[in-house]
Amino acid sequence: MQTSGRHIANGDFLSTPFVAVPYDLLTTHAHIGLHAHELVVLLQILANGQVRGTTELSPQDLGDLCGMSSKEVMGCVERLVLEGYLAIGEKFDEHGAHVTYFDLQPLWDRIRGKSSKKEVRQFRKDPLTLFEEEFGRPLSAMECDQLRTWLGENGYPEWLVIEALKESVLANKYSFRYIDRILFDWQRHNIQSRQDLDNYRQQYRDKAVRSEADSGRKSVGSRSKAAAPTKPKSADREQVRDERYANFYQLFPDG
């Protein structure tokens, strides 16, 4: 039997990966309360899991796949989580870093007629939203580029950038340059996981406590020396004289 010319013409397309989508999802999504744009988000998560083997998608990556901004797609994800269509799982990767991933099990439970609202989690906000909330203003184009550089070119994990933001807020330093110095210092000290960061912070606190204690002792010593009356030379000598020769010193006080 001769192969169809139409199949030959579409060979390049047909050789690309395909995604298996439950037919019940396509036929019942409106019935169970899913909007069309929410279905697109869920399908992109499903496709990424099947083709790439992971559902660890950043807000920006998921937004690009769905044709939305990261803020729009996170608003959509937040509703999906709150309404019990989606869950956010947590795990540690091979480097010990804390990562999150999308879990579609609540969606399958909803299609089966089960409710998944009882274990609802609030989805964490994306870095751009966190920065804008903490800075109290929209980020400039250059600041957005710097944030993308940290997460992309520099390869800093998202959680580490957020921790650096927390450090700057606690220090009342709302500066990207200050945050960049923090990240560079952590990289220089080979901070790879949350445990590494916790240990580094503890070492820094211990060092600061020791330094403050040393400064306090030096300050007390300086005040004591300044407050002590100046003794005559004869009194200095008297202080070091041996008591066994007290009578000798009385006879010859200038000896």
TrEMBL record:
DnaB/C C-terminal domain boundaries: 129-200
Ranges of Basic and acidic residues composition bias in the record: 208-217, 233-242
DnaD N-terminal domain segment(s): 22-117
Chain intervals for the UniProt region annotation (Disordered): 208-242
InterPro entries documented for this protein: DnaB/C_C, DnaD, DnaD-like_sf, DnaD_N, WH-like_DNA-bd_sf
Classification via NCBIfam families: DnaD_dom
Similarity field: Belongs to the DnaB/DnaD family.
The protein's name in its UniProt record: DNA replication protein DnaD
